[in-house]
């Protein structure tokens, strides 16, 4: 080819490589002052600056855009000293963020913000530095979190509380959002508190979420300083959740309390709790050192009535160690007075009803503990078959008349397995050996009719049939000088019956006073009734229910072979008793200016009953003890008085010098065997004054923090300072056949006082007038803040001296994560 020939072949590749754009969308900008530095590839926006990119919008006083670094920087408006007075507002995906400074990388989609204010659901986070890794993950440094609604809505420049963590991660998904923190501390009114959590998981969702449970803290004299109720909450599926709580004491005691709640709508609900711990008192190595283990197992289950009307199951199981309430580690048992418990009962019940059969079958298992004796009663199983009441004869006219047509029959069967045993014998051979089984059938017939228009005549008969597997053989052993009770294992039973007849009427009387008298009339209603009861002597040898043995003195002594059995013993001695009861109701009409009718009724005695009986068949002491019971109320039914009096009609002889007397045959020497009176009177601020209409009385209304007040012309604040005070008194006198009487007398106070609209004081105390000492006393304070509630409870003296302090967050989103412990002394409007 010639040298000067032109080479028309293109040597380079014909593919053109285009550099990828750094922006995925158009970057739109506007401002009062815009400047472009082309060499540096920088854009500067001043005054009312705005950038829109994809779903993000940035509004600020100053914005710079660096095309080389793919970086957008924004800063809020400054004052003359360089302080930010208007924030940068960034809006993305419908969420608004406020910051002092903000930078965003359009390539990596990462952002960094300073003093960012992030609102999520009911809370707000203000972080010194926030880094956005992507649309789902935000990392924050030295961040404060609060749910104070006033602060969120900018009604106040300071939150009433916040929780501060130096490292926070905000995780956002389509389903829910939550923040996860390291160590976190609570601040109240900008003041740090000793409330620390090792970590926290705070959800932003209406669904249940796991989280740390905030404890209460305080001091108890016997076990030291404590954290009470620190733990973790974990929802399990749709129908279950789990709480694990712990109580920790500085003197070595500890307590663990797992709790499981479950619920299936329209079917059933219940909860299971355990309380396991070790109580340490004193100093190890010294004489006063003690270490005891305690436990409590509680299960409650209830079935919705709509689930199955023909088969229902319920359970209320509460089993504790014998000295559980003598060594309570959970302070709530002190505050709610459970430490005074002497009995604990547990029951599981299954009930079967039928659509066509007139019967109900109930199966029960029960367990009862007596802490005073250390014994427990176990009934397992117990079954009752109840036949619905029915009439023995049909009515000829459709309206039942006369004795025959009104005869009703009630009957049923009851099967019981019962044992009274020590706690350490449960389900062991010793317990099974003492187990008793009994079957009982009762048939009750009753009828009534009207006699001579004004009298009601009633007849009844009662038949008992019983069967048991154990009977008693008693004899005196002269060698050991003891009475021996020998239990025979064999089937045997008895049948008993009794009848009664009664006649009752109602009488009215009226006593009117002179016209113009303060008392217009006294009305008396009397309901007298007499009854006669008959039952044969079942201790007669003809029945075979009673036997005789010679005691230590050689006297022939009768006893029932069913005496120690579960079905009870037939009555001994013939019963042919005439009983009486006189019921009274006495009211008085007095003049009253406050009543629209000009007359007011005052109840002198709502009820006043006198009862007793005379047994014609008795060989001695035919008269019973006379009983008088009364109930009345005064001062517009505010003061309630209940009284009872037992009168012994026979003379009690103490001539032998014994402390226990002998009942003689000398009738007419009436002595007080027992007397009891109980009074209760509720006082309140409403009783002592008319309720003030503050809106009409005072000219202006204002707010101090979150408390509303009414202000008079001199700018003094007023509000309804409500208070309540319940006064109760009890006096009991019991003597019986003893030479010396036993007396109990006490006065109790229980009340509350509002110091301010959101400050409340509650307390209760009892004074024993016999020992002249204060009994159980509790003082409680509660403060309802804007976004949390403070509760303080104190038992100042007694066996358990303790104070307890608790703070509960009210925000709904924290109802699981920072669970609020509802107490009896909290405000009624507390949300948890």
Automatic annotation (TrEMBL):
Q: Which residue range or ranges hold the LPS-assembly protein LptD central domain?
A: 179-650
This one is known as: Lipopolysaccharide assembly outer membrane protein LptD (OstA)
Organism, as annotated = Chryseobacterium sediminis
């Amino acid at each position: 080819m010639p040298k000067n020939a032109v080479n028309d072949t293109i040597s380079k590749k014909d593919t053109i490589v285009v550099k990828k754009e750094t922006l995925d969308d158009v970057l739109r900008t506007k401002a009062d002052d815009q400047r472009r530095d082309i060499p540096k590839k920088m854009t500067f926006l001043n005054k009312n600056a705005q950038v829109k990119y994809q779903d993000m919008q940035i509004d600020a006083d100053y914005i710079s855009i660096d095309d080389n670094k793919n970086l957008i920087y924004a800063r809020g408006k400054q004052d003359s000293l360089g302080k930010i007075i208007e924030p940068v507002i960034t809006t993305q995906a419908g969420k608004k963020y406020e910051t002092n400074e903000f930078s965003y990388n359009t390539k990596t989609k990462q952002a960094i913000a300073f003093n960012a204010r992030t609102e999520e659901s009911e809370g707000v986070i203000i972080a010194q530095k926030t880094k956005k890794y992507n649309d789902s993950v935000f990392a924050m440094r030295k961040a404060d979190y609060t749910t104070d609604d006033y602060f969120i809505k900018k009604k106040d420049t300071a939150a009433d509380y916040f929780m501060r963590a130096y490292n926070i991660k905000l995780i956002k998904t389509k389903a829910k959002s939550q923040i996860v923190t390291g160590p976190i501390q609570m601040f109240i009114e900008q003041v740090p508190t000793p409330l620390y959590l090792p970590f926290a998981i705070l959800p932003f969702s209406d669904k249940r979420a796991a989280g740390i449970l905030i404890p209460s803290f305080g001091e108890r004299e016997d076990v030291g300083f404590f954290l009470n109720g620190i733990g973790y909450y974990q929802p399990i599926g749709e129908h279950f959740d789990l709480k694990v709580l712990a109580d920790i004491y500085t003197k070595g005691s500890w307590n663990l309390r797992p709790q499981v709640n479950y619920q299936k709508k329209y079917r059933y609900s219940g909860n299971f709790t355990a309380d396991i711990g070790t109580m340490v008192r004193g100093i190890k190595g010294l004489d006063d050192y003690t270490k005891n283990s305690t436990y409590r197992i509680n299960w409650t289950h209830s079935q919705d009535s709509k689930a199955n009307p023909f088969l229902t199951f319920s359970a209320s199981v509460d089993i504790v160690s014998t000295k559980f309430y003598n060594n309570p580690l959970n302070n709530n048992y002190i505050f709610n007075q459970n430490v005074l418990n002497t009995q604990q009962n547990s029951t599981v019940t299954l009930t079967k009803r039928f659509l066509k059969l007139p019967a109900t079958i109930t199966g029960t298992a029960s367990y009862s503990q007596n802490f005073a004796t250390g014994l427990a009663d176990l009934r397992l199983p117990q079954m009752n078959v109840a036949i619905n009441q029915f009439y023995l004869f049909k009515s000829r006219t459709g309206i039942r008349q006369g004795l025959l047509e009104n005869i009703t029959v009630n009957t049923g069967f009851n099967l019981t397995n019962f044992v009274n045993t020590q706690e350490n014998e449960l389900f062991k051979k010793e317990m099974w050996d003492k187990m008793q089984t009994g079957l009982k059938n009762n048939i009750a017939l009753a009828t009534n009719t009207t006699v001579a228009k004004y009298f009601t005549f009633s007849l009844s008969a009662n038949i008992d049939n019983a069967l048991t597997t154990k009977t008693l053989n008693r004899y005196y052993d002269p060698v050991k000088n003891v009475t021996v009770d020998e239990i025979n294992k064999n089937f045997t039973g008895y049948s008993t019956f009794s009848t009664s007849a009664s006649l009752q009427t109602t009488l009215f009387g009226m006593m009117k006073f002179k016209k113009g008298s303060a008392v217009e009339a006294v009305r008396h209603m009397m309901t007298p009734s007499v009854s006669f009861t008959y039952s044969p002597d079942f201790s007669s040898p003809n029945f075979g229910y009673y036997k005789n043995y010679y005691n230590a003195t050689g006297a022939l002594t009768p006893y029932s072979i069913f005496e120690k059995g579960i079905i009870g013993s037939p009555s001994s001695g013939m019963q042919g008793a005439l009983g009486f009861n006189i019921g009274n109701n006495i009211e008085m009409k007095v003049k009253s200016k406050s009543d629209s009718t000009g007359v007011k009724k005052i109840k002198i005695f709502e009820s006043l009953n006198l009862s007793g009986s005379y047994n014609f068949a008795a060989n001695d002491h035919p008269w019973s003890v006379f009983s008088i019971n009364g109930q009345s109320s005064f001062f517009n039914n505010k003061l309630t008085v209940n009284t009872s009096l037992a009168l012994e009609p026979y003379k009690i002889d103490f001539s032998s010098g014994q402390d226990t007397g002998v009942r003689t045959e000398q009738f007419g020497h009436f002595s007080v065997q027992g007397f009891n009176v109980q009074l209760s009177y509720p006082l309140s601020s409403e009783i002592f004054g008319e309720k003030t209409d503050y809106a009409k009385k005072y000219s202006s209304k204002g707010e101090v923090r979150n408390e509303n007040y009414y202000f008079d012309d001199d700018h003094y604040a007023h509000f309804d300072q409500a208070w309540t005070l319940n006064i109760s008194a009890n006096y009991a006198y019991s003597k019986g056949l003893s030479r010396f009487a036993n007396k109990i007398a006490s006065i109790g106070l229980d009340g509350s006082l509002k110091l301010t609209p959101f400050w409340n004081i509650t307390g209760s105390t009892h004074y024993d007038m016999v020992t002249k000492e204060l009994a159980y006393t509790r003082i409680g304070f509660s403060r309802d803040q804007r976004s949390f509630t403070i509760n303080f409870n104190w038992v100042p003296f007694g066996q358990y001296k303790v104070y307890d302090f608790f703070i509960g967050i009210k925000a709904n989103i924290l109802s699981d994560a920072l669970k609020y412990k509802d107490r009896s002394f909290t405000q009624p409007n507390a949300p948890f």
